[in-house]
Amino acid sequence: MLSKIITASLLGMDAEVITVETDLQPGLPAVHMVGLADTTIKEARERIRAAILNSGLEFPRRRITVNLSPAGRPKEGSHFDLPIAMGILMLERHAEPMIEKTAFLGELSLDGQVKPIRGALPLAMGLRQQGIRRLVLPENNLREVALLKDMRLYPVRTLAESLAYARGKKQKNWVTMQAENDCEVDSAREEFRDVAGQERVKRAALVAAAGNHGIFMIGSPGSGKTMIAKRIPSIMPEMSYEERLEVTRVYSAAGLLDDRCQVVRSRPFRAPHHSISKAAFIGGGRIPGPGELSLAHNGILFLDEFGEFDPALLETLRQPVEKGTITINRSWGSVSFPCRVMLVAASNPCRCGYYGDQNHLCTCSERELARYYSRFSGPLLDRFDLHIQVLPVPRSQITSGGKGEDSYSMRQKVAVAAEIQTDRYKDAGIRFNSRLTEKQTEAFCPMTEESRRFLQKAYETLGLSMRAYYKMIKVSRTIADLEQEPLIHTAHIAEALQYRQLEPFYRRMEYDRSRSIYK
């Protein structure tokens, strides 16, 4: 006797349709599993046996062989419990024809309860891509998967309910609702109103948020770099439906969703410590899972104390930040994770923190300075659209009580600029200026002849790379969008160039050690 049940296996962010083939033959009672199943799946035989018996059902006392097809790819996850159990129960029973186009996902407890699983949304998305639109799943995963508006979902709480569906009895109505249990994931909500002074840096943060540009801040300790970075999420534009779906998919695959948080509504804000390992940062494992880089997808990846990170780890950012995906290779194949992030970094100018500070003396030797600057490679710094020096706040601005612009007014400006970009790129497959290719930059970033000559002169004078040249155009386009200008003018180019003026920190300049200032 043979039965076939459809399920799926998660590899990275992609799901592959798996057919659970169950065969019953005479012989000593035993359950054999083949098809590159991991330990979690092989242990399922004991959970399944107890779940079937405790549900008042009969477990066959013969030789059972379970094959997970295709057999050449590794498989892991407790969500195979329910389809394997259904395969065993359907060996000697007649199944409704509709079960052939229905997938099953769920972990079983020993009493027959169907427990929630990790990665329900990406698994459902993979099934949908293969034309399978009916899904039996744990009730606690319902709101997460209900983001897929065109899927027909059948939530179950017990193995008996799943069997009743397969037999065509006691069927509930299919669920096609949209998820309501939204949540915020690691999103900082501090106010820019609390930042005294630093209006120039706040303006740079506004431009970065409006166009999703990466920003690198460098300055003395206590100047407000971290404080400003943590407030950028408060002015970011709202995520679209597609972006919420992508972010929730990543968090589902990472197992970070639960009953309190089943749909991610706000843009993620991830701030890993500089001692993080490479696997935790970019993703890894025997069957790789997403790391901090992917958990910040469609949000902000904040690297505080940028100079303290392992240089080899930082260099891994160069290609993923530009492509928007990170690929991890294994002997059996490769998996890819999305990582379209707004990269925000903050660093001291040296080990002691006071290189270039007019109020403090730098105590670093020339060798220590050279060693510290060797951590900032030119190609990596070139990935940041905006570079800005954060100077200490003057005492007059602290005591005056003026707090400057707040997050609400800044968020309104960002929303207007984001809407302009959404309308402009609705047929281009992107949403923000920072994602423009070189060809798209020429097409979507018209400028006056005067501003073009000004930019070319700056390119020659400052010795910018071609990447930096196009980044200047993209940043200028964002500044023009904030002012609702259709053309890029010289003033927009000039402001964008101000956000590249960190040459004293990138090139050796004559430095007066006795006064601790630049000549």
TrEMBL record:
PROSITE patterns assigned to the protein according to its UniProt record, in alphabetical order: MCM_2 (PS50051)
Signal peptide region: none
One Gene Ontology term of the molecular function aspect: DNA binding
Residues in MCM C-terminal AAA(+) ATPase domain copies: 291-386
Transmembrane segments: none
This protein's record includes keyword ATP-binding: yes
Pfam families: ChlI, Mg_chelatase, Mg_chelatase_C
Swiss-Prot/TrEMBL keywords: ATP-binding, Nucleotide-binding
Database matches in InterPro entries: AAA+_ATPase, CHLI-like, MCM_dom, Mg_chelat-rel, Mg_chelat-rel_C, Mg_chelatse_chII-like_cat_dom, P-loop_NTPase, Ribosomal_Su5_D2-typ_SF
PANTHER family in the cross-refs: COMPETENCE PROTEIN COMM (PTHR32039:SF7), MAGNESIUM-CHELATASE SUBUNIT CHLI (PTHR32039)
Similarity field: Belongs to the Mg-chelatase subunits D/I family. ComM subfamily.
Protein name as it appears in the record: YifB family Mg chelatase-like AAA ATPase
